[in-house]
Design a protein that fits this description.
This protein is an alpha/beta fold. Helices cover 33% and strands 25% of the residues. It has a 7-stranded mixed sheet with strand order 1-3-4-2-5-6-7, with helices on both faces. A hairpin with a 6-residue loop joins strand 3 and strand 4. The protein is globular and about 40 Å long. The mean pLDDT is 91.
Length: 210
């Protein structure tokens, strides 16, 4: 799949303010400073699409982008939404503010009818973090479809990346019978880009055939 156009649409404070759910939608979320904006920009071939900040917790709303894409084999055009969600975890905000974000995110994830997949971003440089494991457990409890995206693979040696990925899934196996789809990515080498876009393309096709 090739993205031909990506444009910012709207930032919403709650799920009921989001655009009409009339097309496939994919949400990206992770801990603050996990490289979410950079990954979105890499996928969309636009370095200025999602604003990148060195300040954790900068994203505070539900940010919708309209994406136009074509499938390589058929050249069929498809329109879908990409959503940039606030990061969970550490942010220099009040406890009340974090609770508001948490409720906003949960409401969006559980109520958005056209949400086909949630991409959960994990910094592959670190060993399994409790907050990441708790978040994917929540998604499992809510019975929501998701995939893991390991970021910043270029910042570690391949052996360390492999160990940390394996360690994360070993922790998941303590509670999970089946493991989710996963991708290993790097915005420097573009690793994982084609795999994620192909996955989205497959989901789009299933959506259009349903």
């Amino acid at each position: 799949m090739q993205i031909t156009k990506a444009t910012y649409l709207i930032s919403s404070p709650s799920v009921d303010k989001c655009p009409k759910p009339d097309r496939p939608e994919y949400a990206f979320i992770g801990r603050s400073n996990v490289g979410k904006s950079s990954l979105i920009n890499m996928l969309c071939n636009n370095s200025k699409l999602a604003k990148i900040s060195v300040t954790p917790g900068k994203t505070q709303l539900i940010n919708h982008y309209t994406i136009e894409s074509t499938t390589a084999k058929s050249n069929k055009k498809t329109s879908w939404f990409l959503v940039d969600l606030p990061g969970y975890g550490y942010a220099k905000r009040s406890q009340q503010q974090r609770k508001q974000w948490s409720k906003m995110i949960e409401d969006y994830l559980r109520k958005r009818k056209n949400l086909l997949n949630i991409f959960v971003l994990i910094d592959v440089r670190h060993e399994p973090q409790k907050i990441d494991l708790e978040f994917v457990d929540d998604l499992g409890e809510w019975q929501l479809p998701f995939a893991i995206v390991f970021t910043k693979a270029d910042k570690e040696k391949p052996g360390a990346v492999e160990r940390n990925v394996k360690s994360f899934f070993e922790k998941m196996r303590e509670k999970w019978q089946f493991l989710p789809r996963y991708f290993i990515t790097s915005i420097i080498t573009k690793q994982g880009k084609e795999e994620i876009l192909d996955f989205i393309d497959d989901c789009n096709k299933a959506f259009s055939n349903s």
